[in-house]
Specification:
By secondary structure, the protein is of the alpha+beta class. The chain is 40% helix and 19% strand. The chain is globular and about 40 Å long.
């Protein structure tokens, strides 16, 4: 709800996993990276369903939960949720999808230390 006072509900690990699978049919790796003083949420091309994927399902879920906690802590849950629901791009071999995060005032400096 744009402009409302009710903050968006925090992201849940299962919700992000469902969005990834809904959009791209796979459980893609995700990460938050810092570049030139900006933060990006990235969907990686490798995914849990590949034999070469380096993590077990339990490890993947644990890593995803940490990213989700970071996104919630940064106050960008709704941006990420909207983007995962609407992006038309696909992760391609060697090329991650990147969402530049718009951080609420004050959150960036805490994170970018």
């Amino acid at each position: 709800s744009a402009g409302g006072d009710d903050p968006a509900p925090p992201l849940q690990t299962d919700e992000v996993l469902a969005l990834l699978r809904q959009r791209w049919q796979f459980s893609h790796g995700v990460q938050v990276v810092q570049r030139n003083g900006r933060l990006y949420f990235q969907v990686l091309w490798h995914h849990l369903e590949q034999q070469s994927f380096p993590l077990s399902e339990a490890e993947y879920r644990e890593a995803l939960a940490e990213i989700v906690a970071t996104l919630n802590g940064l106050g960008v849950a709704e941006q990420v949720r909207q983007w995962l629901q609407t992006t038309k791009d696909r992760p391609r071999l060697g090329k991650a999808l990147s969402l530049p995060l718009e951080l609420p005032p004050g959150r960036a400096s805490e994170f970018l230390l």
